[in-house]
Amino acid sequence: MEVVVTKSAGFCFGVKRAVEQVYEQVRQGKRVYTYGSIAHNEAVVKELEEQGVTVLESREELEKLTEGTVIIRAHGVAEEIYKLLEAKGLAYIDATCPFVKRIHRIVQEQSALGRQIIIIGNNGHPEVEGAKGWTKTPAVVIETPQQARDFTVKNGEKLCIVSQTTFNYKKFQDLVEIFQEKGYDIIVANTICNATENSQREARELAAQADVMIVIGGTHSSNTRKLYEICRSECESTYYIQTLEDLKLELPNSVELVGITAGASTPNKIIEEVQNYVRINF
Ligand code: F3S
Asked: Rounded CA gap, 224 and 201, in Å?
């Protein structure tokens, strides 16, 4: 029996960079706070908590903070959070993923030039909330074809469309098409991150060949859930687990290929544990 792990399984570049920055501050003996959990993975958050890292869950908690170093996670934050950190004189490290920073730059520039910003993404997702905080006039978040069809511009306004980095490329294209059919003046910036596209493509390809697929990631991680859906559509026997403890694997003798993939916030350690377990026990 063969066990194959997708190449891009686990931490994406942005999350890896953010987590490393947290550990670096811990190593330097700083009192570290992360603004929101650094990765959507309970095991990571727990391990960091054991090292004395505290997660700030809200703006109110940040307002009350008087000491320590705050880490802004890969998802990024609204401009007003930087202003708050500076007004309070708090030390901070900006671990916003450069791909998310690019979105902030685009929406800031284009809204300053008078374009209405449309963000294709999931309203309420921290990355989208952060991006909304860089526009001059309120951005509109569009998630479904119906919302795109219902949208109308006021007074011949021009539009600028960006995407949440983890949005599905095909759905993004479909939504953009709906806007284009309306004949508006639009600038479209495809800001979907390659890391997501690559990991989804690799997962799909592997799942199409595998007899059993194991998808590892936090239950709150939207990119892991998407990976699970993709794998499930190709391979009926797909497991969704957070850590090795969740795995209740039953493999009939006929199984020849077990595929493993993991969401962008899953640490390598967990992927290796699962991989070794399957290799040794079956
Ligand atoms: Fe950045 Fe892409 Fe990861 S935007 S945080 S590298 S999924």
From this structure: 13
Q: Hey, what are 56's tokens?
A: 């700030």
- How many whole angstroms from 15 Cα to the centroid of ligand 1? 7
Dist CA 77 CA 133 (whole Å): 7
Q: Any bridge partners for residue 118, and if so which? A: 140, 161
Q: Which residue has the CA at smallest separation from atom 2 of ligand 1?
A: 193
**Helices within the chain (DSSP H only):** 13-27, 42-50, 59-64, 79-88, 98-112, 126-132, 145-150, 169-181, 194-209, 222-234, 268-281
CA dihedral 18, 201, 172, 235 (to 10 degrees): -110
Q: Which helix (H) or strand (E) holds 162?
A: strand 159-163
Strand partners for 72: 35, 94
- Compute the distance from residue 266 Cα to the ligand 1 centre, in Å: 13
Q: What are the b/e assignments for 197-222, b being 16+ CB within 10 Å?
A: eebbebbbebbeebbbbbbbbbeebb
pLDDT in tens, 96-133: 999 999 999 999 999 999 999 999 999 999 999 999 99
AA letter at 57: E
In angstroms, how far is CA 5 from the centroid of its own chain? 20
Residues designated catalytic: 127
In degrees rounded to 5, what are phi and psi of residue 259? -100, 145
pLDDT, tens digit, 9 for 90 and up, residues 78-89: 999 999 999 999
Best probe residue, ligand 1, of 13, 105, 221 (max atoms within 8 Å of C-beta): 13
Contact indicator for 237, 193 with CB cutoff of 8 Å: no
Domains of the chain: 2-10+195-281 (3.40.1010.20), 13-98 (3.40.50.11270), 99-188 (3.40.1010.20)
